[in-house]
Structure formats: C-alpha cells, structure tokens
Amino acid sequence: MSVQPILCYPHPVLKKVSHAVEAIDDEILGLIDDLLDTMGAGPGSVGVAAPQIGVTLRVCVVDVSASRHGKENNHGLLVMVNPEIINREGAAIMREGCMSVPDYTGDVERATGITVRFQDGEGATREINATGFEAVAIQHEMDHLDGILFLDRIVSLKTGLFRRKNYR
C-alpha cells in the first residue's frame, strides 16, 4: 500500500487501548502492508504498531534482523495480529527510542525473554520464544497497542531520559 505518517507524542491516539482484530480481511491486510512500508521507510526502525499510524487495532510488525543488536538472534519479519505475552523471564535495562518520540531516547526495563502468541498475516496462530533485542522490540510495539509509550516506562526521569542528537 503506502508509507503512512507517524503520529508523534502527545497525539491522543497514542494513549488509546487498541481493539482486537475480529477477522483478517482485506482491510487488515492493507493495514499490514502500510505498517511494513512505514517500518521500512523509518530511520533504523525495527517495528511499528497500528496506533502509530492512527489505527487503534491490535496489529504490529517487528523485524530486528537488519539491526546490529538483533541480527544474530531473531525470527525474521513478524506480523503480529492480536499478540499476547504469555510468559516473561528475566529483566534488563536497555536504551529505547521510538518514531513517535523522535527527539528522545530512554532507559527502560524489559523482560529479557518472552513467549508471545499471535496470529500471523495469514491468520495462523503462532507462538514464539523471543530473547534479547527482539524481545525488547516486541514488548515495545505491544505497549503501543495498550496506549503505553516508552516514556511511561523510563526507569528514572532524572537520569534515564536523553535528548537525541540526531534522528535519521
């Protein structure tokens, strides 16, 4: 389909809880295409969620395979419809950024390993175990589906929020 504009904080749609997808139809397939195109066009983007392009449906895409942080440990391109985390393990603090918050990065604590269940773009139910950077990216995108930004999870507003020097 096409690259969509990214909504930026404090746009109110970014704080809304998304609705479950009832059926994977042509509308949802078009949304998935838009998410993929938008992720591909984003500077260093490893994921994008439907609310970031103004759609409050539980759909997101993640692909960390081209990132230096995730290229050694990933499941490739993940199209996730109605994802849910069914298990979390470990915890670590990592620096995160977001296309919807282009001027800042921040230190966020996330699970280091997750099991996530979702429907893929063809409607098949999948369950994967993700670790490391891929697990962080999935959690980040799933937060968007619940109206949560990484800013809401900063470990310390005094020492954990950083102005981005450049964004490209």
Automatic annotation (TrEMBL):
It catalyses: N-terminal N-formyl-L-methionyl-[peptide] + H2O = N-terminal L-methionyl-[peptide] + formate. Its cofactor is Fe(2+). The gene is def. Transmembrane segments: none annotated. Fe cation binds at residues 98, 140, 144. Its EC number is 3.5.1.88. Belongs to the polypeptide deformylase family. The keyword Protein biosynthesis applies. This is Peptide deformylase. InterPro entries: Peptide_deformylase, Peptide_deformylase_sf. One of its GO terms (molecular function) is peptide deformylase activity. Removes the formyl group from the N-terminal Met of newly synthesized proteins. Requires at least a dipeptide for an efficient rate of reaction. N-terminal L-methionine is a prerequisite for activity but the enzyme has broad specificity at other positions. HAMAP family: Pep_deformylase. Gene3D superfamilies: Peptide deformylase. It is an enzyme of class 3 (hydrolase). The active site is at residue 141. Keywords: Hydrolase, Iron, Metal-binding, Protein biosynthesis.
